[in-house]
Structure formats: C-alpha cells, structure tokens
C-alpha cells in the first residue's frame, strides 16, 4: 500500500568526505559501452571516488497487493544530467515520485545527500525541486499565491516571484485560482515555482510536454544553468533529443527493474544512436 506526501565526475584521492562514496566502477555499464567513446569506469583495477547525491537501496513498491511496480531497485546517482527512460506503464513515473519523496517505498530506503527522505525529511528535501507531469496543486490558491509561498519557503523576495511569473508567461493570469486555468498553465506555474531559489537536486517528469516553443527554450536554459552549478538533475522523458548533449547517464526502467548505463559515448552521433536505441518503444 502506498503512502502519499502532499557533468561531472569527481575522481578523488584516498581521503573520504561524508558525502562521497567509493564504489566499484564495474557492473553498471551495458553492453553498449563497446561503442567508441564509451569507456568503462574501471581503469586497471583502480576505483573512482564519486559523489553520491541520490541513493536508493532495495526499493520495492506496490500500488495494490501482489502488483509490484518496482522490485528491489538500487541506484546511486551523482551530479549532472540523468535521463530516465522506459515504455509506458513500466514504473518510470513511480520511480520519479519515489526519488522526489512523493511516494514512500514499501521497503528499502531513499536518500538525498545521505538523508533519508522519510526519516530526515527537512534535511533531505531542503534543496529539492520536483515538477510532476500532472501537477497536484491546491485548487483554491491563485498562481501568484503559490509562487509567493515558494518564495517564502526558500527565503527569496516576493519580487523575484513576480519576475518569474513574467518570465513564465503567467503574469496575465497570476491572480486566477489554479482550478480556473488549463493543465498546461498549471504545469507552467509549477515549473516557474521550481525556478525560484537554487535547488541542487531537481527531478522533472516530462518537463517539455505541452510547453510552447518559448517556454521550452526557458526550461532548457534553466536546466543548463543548473548543470553549470553542479546540480543533480533527473529527467523522465519520452523526448530524448533536447537532452542528448548534456546527459551523462541513463536509467532504463522495464518490468519493475532498473538498469544504469554510464558513461555515455562522447561522440554526439554515437550518443544519439545509443539513446534512441535505449528509448525505442518508450
């Protein structure tokens, strides 16, 4: 039963930091790594020291008894852009919700920066931003009230929120309640809320869906800015092409299991071919 709640690699020397984990560099790269430019993460017996930001350990999840959506999923995700791909109904959106702390695993643990999303909620979610494919926002608040609430939460001036409304093309409907606007406008509002402050962990579910050309450009620019600051960005998407250049790893979801593929080829065409083959049928 579910429980609801409302590019860079870091090779290091032998010293360990609490937020850094040493792990074997094998076992996570698919057979596709024989493409030119895709090199194994194990080099002559050495191990890489890699910053782990998001960690899942033996996560299982069912919406109904006997219908397991995720089966003992373990993942470690570091900074940079991670794409999450898989066919419809494979558990992709469920995995996103677990990463974002919206759904609670039936068993196993989900952590951000070493903090458990359900036992240390404040610390784990402090710098987390999540944008759902189908935003569930209180229907009686206005768009401006939602944006101003996020400003207060992240200790940002309200004027910054008003400027964000203009940037997202929402100023003309900012004083309408959420229930009065279209789903596309709700998604814009939730995306605009994510722009406020400086989140270092960002999880997006189909961020470009229903967005017009101008808004798509703003979203992609925002993602690029996040990546330049060393943020960890996870995107579940059917639309691969806009993210090909920046992605450093891919997680495929099929049959309740996940497979991490990294590193990706450095050659753009080879990278595109690999990502398209992985996402085929999504």
Blueprint (SSEs and pairs):
Layout: E1 20-22, E2 49-51, E3 54-64, E4 67-77, E5 80-85, H1 92-99, E6 107-112, E7 115-116, H2 121-125, E8 128-131, H3 143-153, H4 158-167, H5 183-195, E9 201-205, H6 213-228, E10 232-236, E11 247-254, E12 257-261, H7 268-279
At the fold tier of CATH, the topology name of the largest domain is Rossmann fold
> Which shape, going by the Cα principal axes?
globular
What's the rounded overall pLDDT mean? 81
CATH class of the largest domain: Alpha Beta
Please give the oligomerization state of what you see: single chain
CATH architecture of the largest domain: 3-Layer(aba) Sandwich
The major pleated sheet works out as: 6 strands, mixed
Using brief descriptors, characterize the structure shown.
disordered N terminus, four-stranded antiparallel β-sheet, 2 domains, six-stranded mixed β-sheet, 282 residues, globular, Rossmann fold, alpha/beta
Explain the overall architecture:
α3 (143-153) runs parallel beside α5 (183-195). β11 and β12 form a beta hairpin. The model is unreliable at 1-49 (pLDDT under 50). The protein has a six-stranded mixed sheet with strand order 8-9-10-5-11-12, with helices on both faces. It has a four-stranded antiparallel sheet with strand order 4-3-6-7. Strands 1-2 form a two-stranded antiparallel ribbon. It is globular. It folds into two domains: 1-127 and 201-212 and 230-282, Rossmann fold, CATH 3.40.50; 134-197, no CATH class. The longest helix has 16 residues, at 213-228. The chain has seven helices and twelve strands. The chain has 282 residues and is an alpha/beta fold. Helices cover 27% and strands 24% of the residues.
């Amino acid at each position: 039963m579910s429980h609801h709640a409302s590019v860079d690699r870091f090779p290091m020397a032998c010293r360990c930091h609490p937020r850094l984990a040493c792990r074997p560099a094998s076992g996570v790269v698919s057979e596709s790594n024989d493409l030119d430019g895709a090199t194994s993460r194990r080099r002559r017996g050495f191990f890489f020291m890699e910053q782990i930001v998001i960690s899942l350990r033996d996560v299982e999840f069912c919406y109904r008894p006997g219908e397991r959506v995720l089966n003992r999923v373990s993942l470690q995700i570091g900074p940079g852009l991670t794409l999450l791909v898989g066919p419809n109904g494979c558990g992709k959106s469920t995995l996103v919700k677990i990463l974002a702390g919206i759904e609670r695993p039936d068993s196993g643990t989900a952590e951000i920066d070493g903090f458990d999303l359900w036992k240390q909620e404040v610390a784990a979610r402090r710098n987390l931003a999540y944008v759902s494919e189908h935003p569930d926002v209180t229907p009686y608040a206005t768009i401006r009230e939602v944006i101003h609430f996020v400003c207060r939460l992240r200790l940002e001036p309200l004027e910054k929120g008003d400027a964000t409304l203009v940037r997202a093309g929402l100023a003309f409907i900012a004083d309408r309640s959420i229930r009065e606007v279209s789903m596309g406008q709700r998604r814009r509002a939730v995306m605009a809320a994510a722009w406020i402050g400086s989140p270092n962990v960002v999880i997006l579910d189909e961020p470009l869906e229903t967005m017009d050309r101008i808004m798509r450009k703003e979203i992609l620019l925002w993602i690029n800015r996040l990546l330049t600051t060393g943020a960890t960005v996870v995107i579940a998407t059917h639309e691969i092409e806009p993210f090909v250049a920046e992605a450093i790893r891919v997680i495929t979801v099929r049959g309740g299991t996940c497979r991490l593929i990294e590193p990706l080829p450095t050659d753009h065409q080879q990278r595109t071919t690999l990502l398209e083959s992985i996402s085929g049928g999504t």
